[in-house]
Amino acid sequence: MTLQSRSHASALGYFKWAFVVTSAGLALGGWFGWQMTGTIGGAASIFFICCVLAVLEISLSFDNAIVNANKLKDMTPKWQKRFLTWGILIAVFGMRVLFPLLIVVIAAKIGPWQAVMVAASQPEQYAAIMHDAHLPIAAFGGTFLMMVGLKFFFDHEKDIHWVHALEEWASRYSSIRGIEIAIVLVIMLAVSRFLPAGEMTVFIRSAVWGLLTFLVVEVLSGILDMKEKALSGAAKGGLGAFVYLEVLDASFSFDGVIGAFALTQNMIVIAIGLGIGAMYVRSMTIMLVEKGTLSQYRYLEHGAFYAILILSVIMYMQTLYHIPEVITGLAGAGLIGVSLVSSIRWNRKKSRAELQSQA
C-alpha cells in the first residue's frame, strides 16, 4: 500500500504508531529511572526528561518533516516505503545513538567499545567531549543546511513567492552558476573572523567539509536517480533521493543531539526522548504527503525553507554565543506558523475571487 493509495484518514490516525512509541518509550524511561535510582522521584525525573527531549525534537523538526514530504512525494512507492522503514531506523538509532558515539570516537581518538564504556560509566566526560565537538558540528551542519535552503530559493523555475521581493530577486539571479556557494563562503569567512585563531581553522575546515558533502550528495543523488530512471523508465526519485534525505536528517539532528546534553548525559535517555520525537516527524511526513498539504497551503514549504536558513544561521552563531534550544525551536515553528496563516489567507482570497467571477 503506497502513500497515495491510502484513503483519507483523520489527522490523529496518522499518529497512531507515534502514540504507541510514545507510550512504550515513556514507560521504558520511567522503568530505567527506577532501575537507576530505586526511587519514585528518580523515575519521575527520567520520565520528565524523556518528555522534554521528545518535545525538543518535534519543535526542531517541523521543517524537516515538510522538506521530507516535498522530496518523498516524488519518490517511487518502493523507495517511499524504504525511507519510512529503514530511514526511520537509521534516524532513530543511527543519528540518536551511533552518531554521538562516533563523535566521541573521533574527538577522543578511542575505539568504539571504549566510547560505549565512557558513555555508560563516565557520562560527564562523554558530555564534555560532545560539548567540545560542538564547534565543528555546528560549522558542518550549518553549512549543509544553508546550502539546502539557498538551493530552494535560487531556482529559476520557482514561480510562487511568499516574500515576493526577496524571492523574486533570488529567482532572477539563480542563473548565475555557483551563486549559492559564493554566498555561503562569504558568510562562512565573515563568521570565522570573530573566532580565535585555533577555532577559526577548525570552523573553516568543518564548514568546507559541510559544503563538499552537500555537493557530493547532490551529484551522487543525481547519478543514482539517473540509473534508477534508466532501469525503470520512471522519472521519480529512488536511491539518490533516499541518500539525500538521510544526510539531510543527519544535519537536522545535530542541534537536537547537542541540545539534549544540556538536560542529561545518559545516551539511553537521549535515545528514548529523541526517538519519540523522530516518530512524530515520520507521522507528520506521511500526513503531509497523503493529504497533499503542501499543495493545499502554497507558502508552507517556503516557511520550512526559511526555517532551515534561520537554523543554519543559528548554528553558525552558536559557535560564538550560547543560544538556547527553545529559541531555535520557536524560530522555526514560528516561521512555519506564519507561512501557514499566509497560505490560509491566500486560499480565502482566491475563493472569494472565484465566487465573484462566477457571480
From TrEMBL:
Query: Is Transmembrane among the key words of this record?
Result: yes
Q: What is this protein called?
A: DUF475 domain-containing protein
Q: Which PANTHER family match?
A: MEMBRANE BOUND PREDICTED REDOX MODULATOR (PTHR30238), SLL1022 PROTEIN (PTHR30238:SF4)
InterPro entries with a match to the protein in the record:
DUF475
Keywords, ordered alphabetically: Membrane, Transmembrane, Transmembrane helix
**Could you tell me which NCBIfam families the record lists for this protein?**
PRK14013.2-2, PRK14013.2-6
Positions of transmembrane segments: 12-34, 40-62, 83-108, 133-154, 175-195, 207-225, 237-254, 260-282, 303-321, 327-346
What domain of life?
Answer: Bacteria
Q: Which organism is it from?
A: Halomonas flagellata
One Pfam family of this chain: DUF475
